[in-house]
Write a structure and sequence with these properties.
The chain has 213 residues and is of the alpha/beta class. It folds into two domains: 155 residues, Hexapeptide repeat proteins (UDP N-Acetylglucosamine Acyltransferase, domain 1); 40 residues, no CATH class. It is 20% helix and 20% strand. The protein is built from seven helices and 15 strands. The strands form three sheets. The protein has a seven-stranded mixed β-sheet with strand order 1-3-6-9-12-14-15. The chain has a four-stranded parallel β-sheet with strand order 2-5-8-11. A hairpin with a 2-residue loop joins strand 14 and strand 15.
Length: 213
């Protein structure tokens, strides 16, 4: 057996609240999600892009990239760069968007300067219920984001972060083990190889996982 079909939108027949995001999103240009990454929401995972990826405008050009084998809990929110306001002057109020003369003299570069770039979530990342990820953040492979956290800075691989703003509470493994896990990169293996080595992937013996590689 080689696991579930990653192209099925709802892989758990009795639980339609769980959905694989890649087929649900249908190839959006500005959102890229890897296989087997799921979103769990009783209101329907098919609404992920509309409800969970906010201020994501095509004209801004930023991307949300999420890796394979990630678990996203209900209410996870990604705030994208379209939410930013110009901050170089005395007021942050967006006068220009309301027009009627208020757009005159607006320098778009003052708003573009606040663009933080793309948002990246690595492979095998678990993001807890109600967590908020701010624009331009990178969350490393194997990281865990605690529920209700606000992530405004990059998260190291295999870190556990929590709070507002989120801080590293501890590392899941020591530095040498993290380096070895990143080198193995099991999430890049073919699905049949992953299926044959689930015990090693789910276990805690890095030597056994390296041997499987």
């Amino acid at each position: 057996m080689n696991g579930p079909n990653p192209d099925i939108k709802h892989p758990l027949p009795m639980h339609p609240r769980v959905g694989f995001l890649k087929p649900l999103l249908g190839g959006r240009a500005n959102i890229e999600v890897g296989e087997f990454t799921y979103y769990d929401d009783p209101d329907g995972p098919e609404h992920f892009a509309e409800r969970c990826v906010l201020y994501h405008y095509d004209f801004v050009g930023d991307r949300l990239v999420i890796g394979r084998f990630c678990a996203l809990a209900q209410g996870v929110t990604f705030v994208m760069n379209g939410a930013n306001h110009a901050m170089s002057g005395f007021s942050t109020y967006p006068f220009n968007i309301f027009g009627h003369g208020w757009e005159t003299g607006f320098d778009a570069k003052t708003w573009e300067a606040e663009n933080r770039g793309d948002t990246f979530v690595g492979h095998d990342v678990w993001i807890g219920m109600g967590a908020t990820i701010m624009p331009g953040v990178t969350i490393g492979h194997g990281a865990i984001v605690a529920a209700r956290s606000v992530v405004a800075q990059d998260v190291p691989p295999y870190a556990i972060v929590g709070g507002n703003p989120a801080r590293t509470m501890r590392m899941r493994f020591d530095e040498r083990t993290v380096a070895r896990l990143l080198a193995v990169a099991w999430w890049d293996w073919p699905v049949d190889k992953i299926s044959r080595n689930l015990d090693a992937i789910r276990g805690a013996d890095i030597a056994r996982l390296e041997a499987a590689a």
